[in-house]
Amino acid sequence: MTKYITKKSGKYWPSKEMKKIAWVNDDKIYKQADKNPVKFWEKLAKEGLVWKKQWDKAYVEKLPYFQWFKGGKLNFCVNCLDRHLGKDKTALIWIPEPVKEKPVKLSYGELHEKVCKFANVLKKLGVKKKDVVAIYLPMIPETLITMLACTRIGAIHSVVFSAFSSDALKARIQDGKAKVLITSEGYYRRGKKELLLKKAKKAVTGTSVKKIIVVSRFGKKVSGTKYLDFQKELEKADSYCKPEIINSEDTMFILYTSGTTGKPKGIVHDTGGYATQAYWTAKWNFNLHENDIMWCTADVGWITGHTYAFYGPLLNGATTLIFEGSPDFPNPGRWWDIIDKNKVTVFYTAPTAIRMFMKFGDRWVKKYKFSSLKILGTVGEPIDEDAWDWYFKKIGKSRCPIIDTWWQTETGGTLINALPGIGPFIPTVAGKCFPGTKHIVVDKNGKKVKTGKTGNLVQCSPFAPGMLHGVYKNHKKYIETYWKRFKKYYDTSDGAYIDKQNQIRITGRTDDVMKVAGHRLATAELENAINESKIVSESAVVPVPHKIKGEVPIAFIVLKKHNPSEALEKQLKKQVDKSIGPTARPSKIYFVKQLPKTRSGKIMRRILKALLVGEEPKGLMTLVNPKSVEEIKEIISKK
Ligand code: WTA
Questions:
Q1: What residue ranges line ligand 1, CB within 6 angstroms?
Q2: What's the pTM?
């Protein structure tokens, strides 16, 4: 079996075979790109995408905003589909969760026709360029069809994670003022039918949504004038839709993500810049060629699903595989079986999944050969050495590089990682900045720290083409979150250090954002959800390390007058399910009499965290109620 890596002086590097097949295999690329990043990206944009009109200016910066390929015109959908027509290639493989249900394969031609038809359905409903379309769908082919249809007509898609609650969907619909929502009857999860339509119906009441298009997953069709059946509408529509010509700097999609404040922000991504970064990062990080089958396990409700489960592989004319269900259903061999059966060549997942499989034991992976795999990827949180090692040996069979990619919803595409043809692949180290981008580590005053010192990871100008273009209708939040602390640098809110070889190690978030099983959540968002309950006086949520999920939220709650009980604990967990979704449910709730606060009334979550992880809390002198600490200590020790 081909070995794609080799060990030299204690580190893993690409093998000769990998160098031979790699799009980039010479580390001179970094220096070349560095000389003139704008020119570099200009060349990539020209080479990688089909443009209707060349841009007038490649990069315009007026901080805190900047634009790529200004004046350029293109259509994103054309870049994903039309240019690959006639190659008789599979674009999508969909694996439904029920083992007995047959996988669906769509060629580029078939996908193109369905996308055109659905674009015509949207047009018939009055959806126009720049209108927001809300999408509340699981991992099924219709999700991709719907999203691409939006891009064909220049509508802005706003995808909401299917495991989010009705309330969460409503808030996102209201922010984007969508007139059309696309959802499904539901989906299969661990052999059970998860119902989506029910939640969607509740969410749309009192919102701008006029039409709801429903994918019938379990066979029941909707009817009426407000609720339309996806398939029926598709059948009636014309099979060609002329693509709209879109300005490069026009918004292509919004995706909501958690920040330090309570309400999720709508991250705005443009068309040309995003497409350029999605195309090239997918191509170079995963060495995608047209005969590759890429499986990115992320749900489309998150940015990784957008860029690498859907768009990156399609822009490159490769095949993307998506899976509806749970990784361990009907048994923990399901994912591995999918890889072998479908000859997946590139596999991209999150450390939390790897840790879960480690726990299931090696017997579940032993049966599989993984001989089709060439490249493994990881994303979403720092990967620990044990998980890296297991992934490398048990899945990669010690022959595939692991590409540890650092990036964010805001960055649109990956930014820090090793390239498969260049290396090195070092456990727990993400790697170098993608060619043509630059990150440095600064102290709290924005001054560059010494090599090897930990500090705040920031991005330098010119900012990468895939970067966000603002927070949807919220200029203030955009400035406050990303530009207030370091002014001329984009603030990632991650900690990191950079060694002498320019290798970057990410140390984790420096704000109140946590990663629970790879999902991005904010403590304030959870507190808001808990505080919505009438019985709660106040609450504080802190993340603590968890062996599999990376982090889990723990809630400290002060009740108004009720006595703590298990029933109340259940009720409050349900409250979080209702407000955000089960993904955010606190793993433990402690009912306390008071929360440790400073004189100015600030809740000291740092102290709560120290108590939870068994450290001696510092800074008790600043508290107005130091007694609370002893009290909480006792409560924790009892539970
Ligand atoms: C974290 C996910 C360490 C980081 C694409 C970042 C990582 C946040 C890595 C963004 C990695 C992502 N190593 N940490 N390889 N990748 N992160 O918006 O804290 O869901 O700021 O985007 O995930 O999460 P988001």
A1: 257, 302-304, 379-382, 404-409, 430, 492, 494, 506, 509, 515, 520
A2: 0.96
